[in-house]
Amino acid sequence: MQFKHPELLYALFFLLIPIIVHLFQFRKFQKEAFTNVSFLKEVTIQTRKSSQLKKWLTLLTRLLILASLIIAFAQPFFSKKKTFNTTTETVIYLDNSFSMQAKGNQGDLLKRALQDIITNIPEDEKITLVTNDNTYKNTTIKAIKNELLEIDYSSKFFSYNAALLKCKKLFKETNSIKNILFISDFQEEKSQFKPDIDSLFRIFAVKLKPVSTKNIAIDSAYISKTTGNTIELNVALKNQGDFINNLPISLFNNDQLIAKTSVAFSKDTTATFSLPLNQPINGKITINDTDLQYDNSLFFNINNTPKINVLCINNADDSFLKRIYTTDEFNYKSTTINELDYNVLAQQNLIVLNELNSIPNTLQSVLKSFSNQGGSIIIIPSANGAIDSYNALLQNYNTSFSGFIENKKRVTTINFSHPLYATGVFENRVSNFQYPEVNGFYNLSTNVSSSILEYDNSKPFLFQSKQAYIFTAPLNEANSNFINSPLIVPTLYNIGKFSFKIPPLYFTIGQENSFDVSVQLHQDDILSLESNNINMIPKQQYYNNKVVLTTLDEPSKSGIYTIKDKNKTIQNVSFNYNRRESNLVYQDISNIKNIKTSDSITDIFNTLKSDTKVNELWKWFVIFALAFLIIEMLLLKYFK
């Protein structure tokens, strides 16, 4: 038992006064003569015993009356914790990810959770509410009720550990009781929800359970091959549940239905559509599934692809380059150093220096500016090249040649994690292949950390520095057989494709996406992304002949977006939600230590209320005082 005013308990010492008075009260008795002395003594004894008992009972009731009143004024109370005069702060994390679209016993998990929060929290109680895309700090339900009812599903990914860390940072008081409440379906993810022991925080978790874990999702779409005047678009589907006998799949171009098919599958399958070649399509693929809704559609774009400009400055045979940079995807031009038109360099996306004997100072200066403006360069050195002129250019890329060594070396190491080879080049990591060889190569004066291909002595054969791809050996047939190696095509082709990043079929929201737009802008002009009522300005960087656009969490809504220069339409790009939440597998949190778990929001809030409830007892002591007063009156009136 605790007291609001414990200092008043000192008044209990005053109870000694009536006790002392009672103990030391002396009364004088007068003697009277009486004939029957024996009878008189007996009556006197009986009278004295009953009188003394009555006095002691009266004293006791009066002491209890005074003690009850003193304790009542001290205001005693009971609580599970020392919550009196202690601030209680509550931070709630509400998971509004797409998996919360699943149906529970009372409807969508998210919508039901919002109703329970509004119902169980007093309107004027201060709380902090965190969702995946918003924070309502130190507010009340009454103030944000309308906003809560409008909370929608978010594409932003928030790991449980990151959410916990954010919640801990939102508490204001140092000595307050800190409650953290997690409300989620606790979908399985790489980092499991396992909070560490922390005496400063009390963590509660409500796991919302769907009635069904079935779901069909459009996982991805890709172009499998091009045949004649058609392309084949493959649509990958995933099924989590029973066998599907007939699932309709529709393909729209804008709002027009252009194809429809159906598939039967138990787990994963692929549907195929044939589309005309070289025809722009603003595509939308849809299925009908009653479970999760966000993965029932997928947007994509097939645009008129601009050709990539490649210029080769030659002093050696470039026939292998012509076979790689074909006219269907590239505008390939070649020239000698003597016939070079410097005015066309700024219009290129990729410039190849093919075994030049010397690099003039003017060309060095132009190439430096070209690469600073986002252009890519391939440097293939000459065995007889003027090393000083090469090094004058290479110093812009933090490296230099130290001398040509005539020694046979094999190219044995491939950096599979480099973007040139990371996707679509190798099905498996090759450890044994026909190694290309060189008869001579340049040593480097500096160490290279980003090798793409290496010799058997771990020295780089091809490496990247900034916007430059640098070979350390000539590629002519007298010095190397690399141009006859299977590696030559994916290496040089991908360098060409990376020099101008054409948007793919679609991007994934929440990942860093970067692509190039071929456009000439005036000073202070900017590009925007527009779709329906959404108008946003992405991060962008302007170069001579292109603009590099970069997106991450925005746009946050899936759909087809138009890239615009003021009112002029440039092209369309598509964004889709990440499919990570389509797999309805959940974490078991019942065995997690250090937290209190439940499957009911109402039960958790009742627990929070009971833990902080203060049971005041002063009214009971007032009742006790009145009861003892009545007892005293009865003693004085009826006790003989």
Question: Could you explain how this protein is built, in words?
Answer:
A hairpin with a 2-residue loop joins strand 4 and strand 5. The strands form 9 sheets. Strands 18-17-19-20-27-26-25-22-23 form a 9-stranded mixed β-sheet, with helices on both faces. Strands 7-6-3-8-9-36 form a 6-stranded mixed β-sheet, with helices on both faces. A 5-stranded mixed β-sheet has the order 28-35-34-30-31, with no helix packed on it. The chain is elongated, with a radius of gyration of 42 Å. The chain is an alpha+beta fold. It is built from 12 helices and 37 strands. Helices cover 23% and strands 32% of the residues.
Structure described in brief:
The protein is an alpha+beta fold and 640 residues long. The protein has a nine-stranded mixed sheet with strand order 18-17-19-20-27-26-25-22-23, with helices on both faces. A hairpin with a 4-residue loop joins strand 25 (451-455) and strand 26.
Number of strands: 37
Order of strands, main sheet, comes to 18-17-19-20-27-26-25-22-23
Quickly count the helices: 12
Overall 3D geometry? elongated
What is the CA–CA distance across the termini?
39 Å
Major beta sheet summary: 9 strands, mixed
Radius of gyration: 42 Å
User: Stretches where pLDDT falls below 50 for ≥5 residues?
Assistant: none
Helix/strand/pairing category:
alpha+beta
State the share of residues found in helices, binned by percent.
10-25%
In percent terms, what proportion of residues is strand? 25-35%
The average pLDDT score comes to 84
